[in-house]
Amino acid sequence: MTIATINPATGETIKTFEALSDREIEEKLATAQTAFESYRRIPFAQKAKWMNATAEVLEKDKQRFGNIITQEMGKTLFSAIAEVEKCALVCRYYADNAEKFLADVPAETDASSSFVRYQPLGVILAVMPWNFPFWQVFRFAAPALMAGNVGILKHASNVPQCALNIEEIFLEAGIPDGAFQTLLVSADKVAKIIADDRVKAATLTGSEFAGASLAENAGKQIKKTVLELGGSDPFIVMESADLETAVRTATTARTMNNGQSCIAAKRFILAEAIADEFEQRLTESFKALRVGDPMDPETDIGPLATPDIQNDLDQLVQTCIQKGSNVLVGGSAWRDRPGNFYPPTILKDNPPGSPAYDEEFFGPVALVFRVSGIDEAIALANNSPFGLGASAWTANSDQRDRFINELEAGAVFINGLVKSDPRLPFGGIKRSGYGRELSIQGIHEFVNIKTVWVK
Ligand code: NAP
Questions:
Q1: CA-based, 20 to 30 A from 437: which of 118, 135, 174, 337?
Q2: Ligand 1 center–CA 106 separation, angstroms
């Protein structure tokens, strides 16, 4: 894949970049290893100062970074700036909490003193996607760096300017040279990088295919991985739900980030009693959304990130229609203009065996299903290869408890939008991946949990 900035709203190639040579990759790895030797000894207070300074750089230049994000991957400028602000939040969160999260944990044993000590592992490779090109990186980097690891980033090939700017942000904040480096490389270099002795572990956010490939290569080297992969989150609405809030949230949940979020609600599972009304209101709400130039503050939905994403999504939609799905709104890619635009779409009457059941729709396409009651709702929600997030809407406490206990997902949100929050762990089960980011669990992924026993 060419490493380039190609404006998804126009198709125009803005800038192309040379991939690093093997020699340059070797230099970066050597720099990372050297940096680790001293960085691992830096006290928390100093690392926290740098992490807070990183937050300040992000906030000071959020407009500029927002513009770069929008130009490279097409989300609305408003949401791009909000993404940069959220990165500042995660930096401050780990600046404030890392020392506490990584403090020694005493254990009573037959020793005079025994405890757990958390220590950094070394160079960690992060392979990241374009859909939240700043957030995905910072939610890895803030805990990893606060734990005393150093990071190397292989970012998606369509967001090179984001990738380079992130390295510069850390440098501007004062974080030592080599503690965080961007490697402009294509995906086929990842296997060699993970095989390098200096690289101790890896995390990948992206597709199942890429995740499986990284995990296979890391497994051969007995190296730990964290995988944050795709999802097809259910959004379940029961009779007692507050429909107005549910419809408004459903619209946001399916269309934010132009529909390209792993934790977007993708399958809308409706109790029969409210299904007609919910579908009608959701259709009206989708029709009111404005699709267009992501730089325009009036725009709700910008273009999809690449022509491939647009084609893949359209193919899934057309297959569903051929198999019997009915279209409430939208239904095909806009081909009559430049840019990778896809209108907000709702498909109902989706037959079993169609992609609506087991594929991830990465764009603003809502798949609607009807169920007779909670048993069927939970069964349908769990009938998916994925298990990332789930949102369930009900005023009934028995139903709420069943959703919490029985939904197969890394997160269950009751009467709310599934979202990431630095204070809560984030990750999936099943084919959505393993391991957790954020919160205390996130910072414990890339440390040696060392048992100490002293007599
Ligand atoms: P992708 O193709 O898997 O790309 C993600 C990253 O992996 C890119 O840096 C890509 O590099 C790299 N890559 C691709 N093939 C690889 C391979 N064989 N070995 C190593 N690295 C490889 O993913 P995408 O389709 O762009 O991103 C969307 C996917 O990410 C969706 O499935 C979405 O649900 C998921 N996602 C998950 C989360 C989560 O937290 N669970 C968050 C956001 C997105 P190139 O760009 O150079 O190919």
A1: 174
A2: 39
Q: CATH fold of 2-229+432-454, please?
A: Aldehyde Dehydrogenase; Chain A, domain 1 (3.40.605)
What beta strand segments (E) does 128-263 contain? 150-154, 180-182, 199-205, 224-228, 233-237
Domain limits, the chain = 2-229+432-454, 233-421
Tell me the residue length of the chain. 455
CATH number of 233-421: 3.40.309.10
Q: How many CB atoms lie within 10 A of CB 327?
A: 15
What's the pTM value of the predicted model, to 2 decimals? 0.97
Q: How far from 154 is each of 19, 122, 408, CA to CA, in Å?
A: 11, 17, 31
Structure confidence at residue 105 (pLDDT): 98
441 exposed, middle or buried (CB, 10 Å; 0-12, 13-18, 19+)? middle
* Single-letter code of the amino acid located at 265: A
Q: Which of 83, 262, 360, 408 is catalytic?
A: 262
**How much is the pLDDT for 1?**
76
Q: Give the pLDDT mean for 273-277.
A: 98
- Cα 5 to chain centroid distance, Å, stands at 20
| Predicted confidence (pLDDT) per residue in 127-178, tens digit | 999 999 999 999 999 999 999 999 999 999 999 999 999 999 999 999 999 9
Residues 29, 151 contacting (CB under 8 angstroms): no
pLDDT beyond 90 at 351: yes
Name residues contacting ligand 1 (CB within 6 A).
Answer: 1, 127-131, 136, 154-157, 186-187, 190, 204-207, 210, 213-214, 228-231, 262, 360, 362, 388, 428, 432-433
Nearest CA to ligand 1 atom 29: 206
Helix, strand, coil shares, percent, the chain, to 5: 45, 20, 35
Q: What is the pLDDT of residue 89?
A: 98
